[in-house]
Amino acid sequence: MTAKTLIRIEGLTKRFGDFVAVDDVSLEIGEGEFFALLGPSGCGKTTLLRMLAGLEMPSEGRILIDGADMSRVPPNKRPVNMVFQSYAVFPHMSVKDNVAYGLKVDGVPAKQREARVYDALALVKLEDFAERKPDQLSGGQRQRVALARALVKRPKVLLLDEPLSALDAKLREAMRFELAQIQDKVGVTFVMVTHDQDEALAMAGRCALMQKGVLQQVATPSDLYEYPNNRFVADFIGSINLFEGRLAVDEPDHAVIQCPALDTPIYVDHGVTGASGATVWAGIRPEKIDMVPRHGEARPDRDGASAGHNLAAGQIRNSAYLGSETVYEVALAGGTIVKVLRSNTRRYEERGFDDGDAVWLSWHARSPVVLLS
Amino acid sequence: MTLRTRSREAKGPLDYARNWPLRIWIALVLVFLYAPLACLVAFSFNESRRNIVWTGFTFDWYGTVFGDDELITAFVNSLTIAALSTLASVVLGALVAVALWRFRFPFKPVFDGLVALPIVVPEICMGVSMLVFFSRVVPWPTDLPWPLDLGAIVIAHISFSFPFVAVIVRARLASFNRELEEAAKDLGAGEFRAFIDVLVPHMRPALIAGALLAFTLSLDDFVITFFTSGPDTVTFPVKVYSMVRFSVTPEVNAASTLLMAVTVVLTLIGLKMQGKDVAKMGNG
Amino acid sequence: MQDWRDAKGPFAAIFGAPALWLLAFFLIPLAIVWAYSFGRPTGLTDIAITGTFANYVRTADPVYLGIFAKSIWFAAITTLLCLVVGFPIALVITFASERGKALLLLAIMLPFWTNLLIRTYALMAMLRTEGYVNTSLGWLGIGPLPLLHNNFAVTLGLVYVNLPFLVLPLYSALDRLDKSLLEASLDLGAGHLRTIREIVIPLALPGILSGLLITFIPALGSYLTPDLLGGPDSQMIANVIERQFKRANDWPFGAALSFILMYLTFICIAGQGLLARRREKAGAV
Q1: Which residues of A touch B13 (CB under 8 A)?
Q2: What is the assigned CATH class of domain A239-288+308-371?
């Protein structure tokens, strides 16, 4: 994070009766960032967003925006605007009136208002729809109205609550790029709530992953994917094969993990800094596993196989052809199922795998991620 | 994922229910609504006949009420009329609702409007029409044995009650899943069987709400009964009216308290019987 | 939906009884009153239906026009007061917790289930010269104020009796609103009053109007409240109608008055329906 901090959240907690929706969350968001709050439904991300907007008041903790404590400030007095999940476009007002509403409330003079409304409509490419009523618009257009209506107020922070969830798949893809473009253009800090990891990874500069009200990890999308903090993060972002094991060797430049499910130990080329003998989990992403046919007992000469680690024998149970890639489910001797992903880089593979084939699985010492919790 | 439960400590911007000026407003309105009734009940237990200053607790006035044959007769008449008219109103109202929901027939919008008419026609107009009808067109014999002598009043009550039942049942039928009936038929039930086994259970909450409403409407009615009743068929409201016109007496307080108790008990039973939305389904 | 011809038996069984009942015990009596309004009394109990409009002409007499005007005024001011008193209540109920909602609705509805006569009587006991209010005021050295048997008492009584009529439809209109629209308005910088004025009221308007209508109509036809709480100059249409039928024994004139009251009611309903249709056409939701 290079820019200066715009939003500082300190020990924020929100309880509804006995239910803790947001549990002691502390977080900083920089100016101009595109920040995503990611998590399964019910994880508290929307409540956190609503507290930023002032629509929910925190039970404990503080929210500072640009240095000012906003925790108890009502929503209409905050330099923050929101794009609602349902868009909440006022059905009795034309597109223009919707966008002008916030300016009118602020007492912006009519002339200036007109100009700003048109700029905002131009930004979301709705100039030609200014006089329409919301029920004459498509879902995507209504969303643009909501976006223009919030941005026209030049907020310090724009909050987006599941902005793409109500759109169909094709439109969603297009909107991802457009939202990112708009953010580039206006430079406003965006905070987006989503349950869709693809959306968060594709659009956000940084993501916060939440579960049961607790912040699990805050990181860039690639760090979140490649260096997850714990099993929940590893499992929520993408898919991963997790092997429970015991930390047998832990040196500064390498570590060895004994996993009951695997024939050979897992060898990683970095230290783990865990207690020796502790239970750890090694996670290996399906695309980072190599698969070759297995004939007899001869071990293949790949990765660390010759050194007697990072290798497992198995048999293909099942495969799912997904067009650009194929996912195989490989059963190990102990019964553990491992997911392996192979890109279909050519139209006809030289050697395709069939269900029932005996295979060797192997991986590079850099590939596994070791999780302590 | 939007959580609408209200926390005790932190008030959101739309928590109008926890806004103090609004709470005071509500409290004032409730005082306005309940203070007269509370005074009425309280002073039914007051010793003093003057009914203004509290002088001591007594059940005497209730004794007087139970000793007053005319008042007791009127009370029994009212309950009898309410029971009979409720029964008929529920049947007729349910039939109307099913007919309108089930069939396409000529002049249906006209019939639909006509059924709603008793709901909107001013009570006084309905009252005079009943007066004219039962005095000129079909004079109701005055010498019939009880409860047949109440016939004219019962008929009048049914006429203004069953459209209310129809409205409630119809609203309920709108949420009926036709596939349930089709499933019943697919499983071998005949037309009538499917009606009894599937449709009637679905209508039940509405039938209970409708019955409750019809009973209260009947018990509550003064104007229409006032015009329909002969000199010998007095209902409770008509009797109380004649007592109330010129004086406020503790006997009337006691009698009113009894009727209110009946209404409250009935309402609570109704609420218990079909969950919490009776109050919401209420009157049109 | 099934065509009646495809199931004549079931249709007759279901449709027959209520249709006959409606005809015999509602439409025919009304029709007779309507016919009477074109007749004249020819004896103590006889009425000749002559097709005359004399009864309607008589209703244009300033005395009766005044009473109509007064009735409309009473009903209008009652409806307005109920709106002012009831709107905040409906707002609170809408945003209360589930439990609070149920309790408040019950609290508002319970007096409504109570007998109208008893409620009116209770008000009489409060308001009369030696009633509770004046007695309390007397201790403070004020009064006694003339609270009963005047226009004030009628207005108060009509508000007292009709308030729940308006709170319920208001509540159901507000409850249907998408709450995120209110949140959006606040989020865009509007205060609460502004949000209510520019978002809540325009969007809930159809519901508010129909609530006003179902308060106005019964208030317009009120009989008991002006009869028991009113003075000699606070009579409403219904009281005049009653007098024609019970005491003056001029049924044809009473019938004409009744039907003018009916027509007023229908005009209100039709007007509201027209308004609703216009709004629908204009595209307002």
Answers
A1: 54-55, 74-76
A2: mainly beta
